[in-house]
Each structure stands twice: as structure tokens, then as C-alpha cells.
Predict the 3D structure of the following.
Amino acid sequence: MDAASGSSGRAATTRQGGSLGYRLFRADDSAARNFFVVTALWLVFGTAMGLLLAIEFVFPDFMSWLPFVFSRLRQEHTNTVMFGFLSTGMIGLWYYILPRLTGRRLWSEPLANLVLALWTGGVLIGVLLISMGHSQSREYAEMVWGVDIAVLAALLINLVIVFMTIARRVESKLYVTLWFIIGTAMWMPLLYAIGNVVWNPPTGALTGINDAIWNWFYGHNVLGLWFTTGMLGVFYYLLPKETHTPLYSVKLGLMSFWGTLLFYTGVGGHHLLWAPIPGWLKVTAVAESIGMILPVTAFFINAAMTMRGNWNRFFSNVSLRFTMLGAIAYIIVSFQGTQTALFGMNSLAHFSQYVPGHSHLGLLFFSGSIVIGGIYYALPHILNCELYGRRLASVQWVLYVVGFSFFFIGFTVAGLVQGSNWVMQGLPVWEVLPGIRVYMALRVFGGGLMFASFLMMPVIVLGTLAKRLPNTEPHYSFGRQRTAEPDTGQPPLSVTTAEAEPS
């Protein structure tokens, strides 16, 4: 899976020595490492706001004495989690993966660290401005124009780094992960500029129903052509590395790539089925939502067949546990998305708590799981050391799974109760609220467990950086400890050129 062997084909390894500035910002893998640290901090910051929001749904006066406004806090939460935690972690994982699949060092570590500075600074300023009431008030496009320019600059520099690293690769064939990474890096700058209407700085918006169509084209494709494609690329790298097994089928991987590009771009209209938009847009959105079954099924077969005979590793490898959790969540959320796009289900679930439950399943349980699993795999390999607190990471995984289960059930049942009362009994919104309070309490309970698990991630990441324990891994069959060989970038189980599938 990695680039061919030989001095020119070895994955980049960190140079020894050098000044502190060199080690922090210019050494090999310095950008990936720095992205991972910032990701862990964003996770705690963003989910803390989410927990406060969940509590307010049960106890509306909970924060009446604090300078927090619910509407602003909700925007701060979504932007922090999406663009702070998830995007930062995903880009950092790209910067770890690229040298190992191309056989070349990252094109520019200083520029990659500049991407981190622009991205982190932009998102932080954007969130602070939202807290002061400066918002464009559009879904996932709330940050003001000046912040949009900083984010776009980071995305364009990232595109140059990705393209130049891949262009200078040793291996002529493109492994499926590289297709996902280069595609995602190309699409997002254009998508972000369109969605934030950057040519109209005063409002960052169009007018009337056109803006609703525009916004949901952007809003859904942030999920589809940024997080979905970006995270699937990471998954297709992690799964063979963590299982020591070649990917079952590169062709199926490419089917999931091109199928997602073909079908995902038009699905945003299913959020507007009850709005006065052109009928052909509604039909297209529903049809493409159904078409997403094809690339998701290709992904499912690929993941399941690669894991065949490897489920014993699931219980001894914590990064694999998080990674496969993300894969399972992706399959569930994709079929749920197709279901909610249908007119009958949409009439019941739209405007209810069912939809944010669906969003959390995709953003947190799918994307978040792959980010956490990826960092727990990549950071020890960068430092050639043991992951700090493996047992703590296992406890984190259990709390995360149990917590999200309660969290998601609370959302889902509350949404179905709301929808059935509105549609079938004709009750007004306010009259339904007392009946869903118990389900909102489930959301708080599950959210509290998840937040407790997320507090462990900075401890694990910073502990790994500080302690750098000797590198050992469990024996997958019997749990005994063995000394692991340093990661040279070579695949633990490789296929010959004749056996490899063409890309």
C-alpha cells in the first residue's frame, strides 16, 4: 500500500537534532504532529459547548445567569466541532499519510504549519466574533467575510501542498486514498467560496429562496465533499495498516470515490422538500439520495471483506476500534440519509430532533471516530513510541460508544414523537415539548459520558508526546507483549506489482 522500497521510495522519517524551531515547524511530520495536538484541544472546547446546549433543552434557565445566548452558542458549537476539531484532525492525517503513500517528504512542512496557523486563527476569531453577535446567520457559513478569506487562503495553500507532494511521488500508481485526498482538497476551496458567497462581503448571502437553495447546496456538500470523501480516504489508509491486510479491492474503493462525487452533489435539496423551490430540484435531490446506496454498498463490501479474519485485532487495537466504529456509523448514517430524503419520512422527521440526531451520527460518530482512531495510530508512528494510556483509550472508547448510544436514542425518539404529534395529531409545537423532555434528558446523560471520554484525548495525545514510552504492541492472538519494529513506511503485508490492482 505504501510506496515501493528503496532509498527514494522510503516514507519520510524525522531528521534528528536541529534547533527547537526546526523540530517544531520544519522537521518531517512536524505539521501532522502539531495538527494532532490542536485537534485534541478543539475537541474538548467544541463538545463542552454542545453539552451546555443539551442541558438547556432540559433546563432552559440553566445559563440565564451567564453571558451565553443559545442561538450564538449553537453556532459556536457547530463551527468549532466541524472546522476546529474534525477539519484540523483530517488535514493533519492527510499530512501524515501523503509522504507514506508517495515515498516523498511533504512538499513543505513550513507551509503546512502555516495552514495550521491560518486555519486555527481563522476559526478561533470566527467563533469569538459569533459569540459577540457577528454572524452571517447561514447554516455552516456563519463566520464573517474576513474569516472566510483566511480559511480560503489555508485551503488553497493546502491544495498546493497536496498536489505538489503527489506530483513528486515515487510510485506512479495512485492508491485509492490519494484519489480521495486530492479530490477533497480540490473541491473544498470552490465549495467554501460558493457557499459563503465571498463576492458579497456585506452579507455573505444571496436573497430569497435562491439563498436557501445555494446554502443547502453548500451545507450538505460540506458533509459530502469535505468530511465524507476526506475521511474515507483516511479510512482506506488506516484499515490495511491496522489489520496488516491489503485492501480487499481498489476497484471498489474507486467506485465509492466516483459514486460519491456523482450522487452526493445534488442531495442538499432534500432539506427543502417543503419549500417553494423548483420541482426538478426536489426530484433530483431524492433520486441522488437513493443513488448514494451504490457507493456506500461498495464501501461496505470493501470494509467487511478487508476485516474478514481480522476481528480478533478489533479487540486488541484501540485505533482499529475507533476506525471501524467510524465505518459502521458511515454505513448507518448513509442509509438513514436515503430514508429521510423520501417524501413520506421527510414529512414526519423534518424540523424535528431526528435531523440533528442524524447530523451527529455523521459528523461525530463517523468523522470523529476516524479522526480519533487515526491520531491514535499515526502519533505513535511519528514518534516511534507507544501510545500513552492504552487502557485509558479503551475506557474512552467504551464511554464514547455507551454515551453516544443514549445520546442518539434520545435524539431519534424525540424526533419521532415530535413528528407523529405534529403530522398525525396536528398538535402545536409548544404542546409537544413537555412530552420529549425525558428524551432530551437522555441526550444530556449520553452527552455527559461522551464529554468525559473526550477529556481523555488531550491526556493521551499530550502524554504520548511527553512520555514517549518504548514501542510495544500486543500480540493479536494471545495478548502477549512484543517489541514492535520501527515504522519504516513499508506495508506489513504487501503485494507484488503483478498482483496489485491497477488504480
Remarks:
- The beta strands are 472-474, 481-483.
- DSSP finds 17 helices and two strands in the chain.
- The longest helix spans residues 208-243.
